[in-house]
């Protein structure tokens, strides 16, 4: 190499370079659901504070949660909780050193998505039956 000439430096990999894989999407979704749970638990604390404040304010908060938008938010919160819970169990499995085979990883990701949907529907069905 002659003096003064430089090789072009390689660019750092970016998200556009990587092929979208199920494990990558599951990881991103796990982080997003973790953030969503923070805001969902703020709503839960608001509901508890409303219960402690008095019946009139509690009825007001309950009426907000009973709207279609409130129900949609609560349904999304339930799904985020179930998805994050199952993702945490998957990570605990990995912490033991198990489940790193490619087929197992793919199966766990699919089970996480499917299981979170089933558990969410189950929680809501039981909630409506008990109600």
Which secondary structure elements does this structure contain, and how are they paired or packed?
Layout (H helix, E strand, L loop, with lengths): L21 H32 L1 H11 L2 H28 L6 H29 L1
Report what the structure shows.
With 131 residues, the protein is mainly α. 76% of the residues lie in helices and 0% in strands. The protein has 4 helices and no strands. The longest helix has 32 residues, at 22-53. It is elongated. The mean pLDDT is 91.
Number of helices: 4
| CATH architectural arrangement | Up-down Bundle
Give a short account of the largest sheet. none
Overall tally of domains: 1
CATH topology: 3 helical TM bundles of succinate and fumarate reductases
Low-confidence stretches: none
Total strand count, please? 0
Summarize the helix and strand pattern as letters.
Answer: HHHH
Return the average pLDDT rounded to an integer.
91
Question: CATH H level: which superfamily?
Answer: Fumarate reductase/succinate dehydrogenase, transmembrane subunit
Q: What is the gyration radius calculated from CA atoms? A: 22 Å
The first-to-last residue Cα distance is 78 Å
Briefly note the structural class of the backbone. mainly alpha
Name the CATH class. Mainly Alpha
What percent of residues adopt helix (DSSP H or I)?
A: over 70%
What would the principal axes of the Cα set say about the shape?
elongated
Indicate the proportion of strand residues: under 5%
């Amino acid at each position: 190499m002659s003096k003064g000439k430089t090789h072009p430096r390689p660019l750092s990999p970016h998200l556009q370079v990587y092929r979208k894989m199920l494990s990558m999407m599951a990881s991103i979704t796990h982080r997003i659901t973790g953030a969503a749970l923070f805001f969902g638990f703020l709503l839960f604390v608001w509901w508890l504070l409303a219960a402690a404040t008095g019946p009139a304010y509690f009825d007001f908060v309950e009426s907000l949660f009973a709207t279609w938008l409130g129900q949609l938010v609560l349904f999304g919160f339930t799904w985020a909780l179930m998805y994050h819970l199952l993702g945490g169990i998957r990570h605990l499995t990995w912490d033991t050193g198990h489940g790193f085979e490619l087929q197992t990883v793919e199966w766990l990701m699919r089970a996480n998505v499917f299981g979170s949907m089933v558990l969410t529907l189950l929680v809501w069905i039981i909630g409506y039956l008990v109600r």
